[in-house]
Amino acid sequence: MAPVPTATTPVETTITEVRPAPTASSLRRFAFPLFALVMLVLPALPVPDFWISQSNYIGLYALVALGLVLLTGVAGLISFGQAAFVGVGAYTAAYMTVTLAASPWLALVVGIALAVIAALVLGAITLRMSGHYLPLATIAWGLALYYTMGNMEFLGKYDGILGVPTLTLFGQDLGTGRGLHVVIWAFALLAAWACSNLLDSRPGRAIRALKSGATMAEAMGISTFRYKLVAFVLAAVLAAISGWLFAFFQRTVNPSPFAISKGIEYLFMVVLGGVSHVWGAFLGAGVVKLTEDQLQVLLPRWIGTSGNFEGIVFGIVLIAVLKYAPEGLWTFVQRRLPRSDRRRDWEGAAPLPAREKPARGEPLLQVEAVRKQFGGLVAVNDVSFSIAAGDIVGLIGPNGAGKSTTFNLITGVLSLTSGQVRWRGESIGGLPSRQIARRGISRTFQHVKMIPEMTVLENVALGGYLRGSSGIARAMLRADRAEEKRLFAEAERQLARIGMADRMHELGGNLALGPQRLMEIARALCTDPALLLLDEPAAGLRHKEKQALAAVLRQLKGEGMSLLLVEHDMEFVMGLTDRIVVMEFGTRLMEGTPAQVQASPQVRAAYLGTEH
Ligand code: ADP
Ligand code: MG
């Protein structure tokens, strides 16, 4: 991200090219049905058994890899322990069908339930912690489960469980080849369809927002912890389904396919294939399986001794991929596919539910002696002011005065050292920012926070998160389309308001800084706020854009919206605000009308650094 310019520094915008988002809407329409058809009729074609067996492996691997796309590529969480979840599914299948003589389908339900429980426990402990705790925990989990499987008498120790029956469906024995192929690929394709649907939905956008840090998502009302947990559980379930199928494919289970090294191989597959793309999972699984077999035969022959040399080759390839194609091989395929814009199918959708607006003049926000200390630095020093409904208040002061920190205290991004914030009489100091967002306070950020690989429209629709209700299951089954239309209609309406409707299909990351700021305002408006906090909205805007922004803010004022505005452009602030709070070195220097502030020698001194 480019450094955020102030009114006094020249605007420098870096436009980084970001590739299309994995909405897969164009692919699904044509390529997906064709691919699905080919995979499902493959067993009926006169292809060699070896092909079918390879294809079975690819489908099984792809299921696990798909979970890692959600978890690692989309949500930004790394797990080395997916092989252990595969083991849970496989051992449940083997133990229940062999030892307990239970139905394989019951074993599927139990296997999934066990994986969900394990993922919930593991996730609840680690997902609240920062960054690397999850990868470490998944390694520990992978090792622990591996040795558990290898040492439990009832699981057959390292010999495992032999004699797993074949799967039967409607009285048909599916065997381990062509019949099972249909089942494996039905699961894999169904999972791909459900995951594509999910990524293109309200909860899916919340998951896609995780990678860019929690602050913005939480400010839009999203519980980032909850969605991290969701991604982790979904990945575990996909792995467990793969393991369940694996047991009936191999007809025997032992600990070695579920070791930590296999977990690393799954990660390798998705990184190679394309870690943030649903089809990257399939491509990666295919490429790894097919080359692995070749390498296992060729490498010992070339080198002259036997050994697992393919691991070395994969290690080298992994480094090369990370360096030269970090988005994976799928991007090379994707570039050749046509990209179609989302169909604008939301015309006439019913408006989203709206909040009951406070009456003009009603006391809204009371900031009471709020204080924030960073170690020895008092960034905000017992600052007080209040805002009534319909007020446009400016918050000005030199750089480092504590304006953004004050915003963060009001919106719950930072915790208060002391003091209190009241919203319509209720104390909200100390609430998490998503709870504060729920009450009708929305904001933009001085340093733009958005999802670069989402379209402008999707970024803005994130703001409507709290006004929708579709959950994971509805989204996966595509039963959320009516609500999606309402969300997109609202997002477009807010974009049109700031003059950006014609850019809704562009990727957020491809916008210059000015339009990115406007997009953030549209996103904040999409939350249907009662109070809007704008942190330097005009910074980086061209003159024309600034005028347009001022017009929008005046219109909002006319509609009775309350605004708190941090801005360095004095002309902009003076022309717009009813009242101005001036800060310097964390303290409130004065408060008054624009005319009073302009006339104040104190304020002039603060800005010029001289005392007259
Ligand atoms: P403004 O928005 O008025 O330019 P800020 O609120 O961003 O100022 O910063 C006020 C002071 O607090 C600055 O000295 C800044 O360096 C410091 N500060 C802000 N955030 C942090 C933080 N997370 N940790 C430590 N110091 C911080
Ligand atoms: Mg600031």
Structural category is: alpha/beta
Name the poorly predicted regions.
Answer: 1-17, 19-24
CATH level-3 fold name of the largest domain: ABC transporter involved in vitamin B12 uptake, BtuC
Q: Which percent range describes the beta-strand content?
A: 5-15%
**Fraction in helix:** 40-55%
Radius of gyration: 28 Å
Characterise this structure.
There is one protein chain. The longest helix is centred in the middle third of the chain and has 27 residues, at 224-250. Residues 1-17 and 19-24 have low confidence and may be disordered. The chain has helices at 25-41, 49-74, 82-99, 104-126, 133-151, 178-199, 202-208, 214-219, 224-250, 260-273, 278-303, 310-324, 330-334, 403-410, 433-438, 456-462, 472-476, 481-497, 513-526, 543-558, 570-576, 594-599, 601-608; strands at residues 161-162, 168-169, 172-173, 252-253, 363-374, 377-388, 392-396, 418-423, 426-427, 441-443, 531-535, 562-566, 579-584, 587-592. The chain starts with 24 loop residues before the first helix and ends with a helix. The relative contact order is 0.12. Helix 2 packs antiparallel against helix 9 (224-250) and helix 3 packs antiparallel against helix 4 (104-126). The protein has 23 helices and 14 strands. The protein folds into three domains: 41-333, ABC transporter involved in vitamin B12 uptake, BtuC (Orthogonal Bundle); 361-440 and 529-612, P-loop containing nucleotide triphosphate hydrolases (Rossmann fold), CATH 3.40.50.300; 452-528, no CATH class. Strands 10-11-12-7-13-14 form a six-stranded mixed β-sheet, sandwiched between helices. With 612 residues, the protein is α/β, with parallel strands linked by helices. The site of adenosine-5'-diphosphate (ADP) has 11 residues, from strand 6 and helix 14.
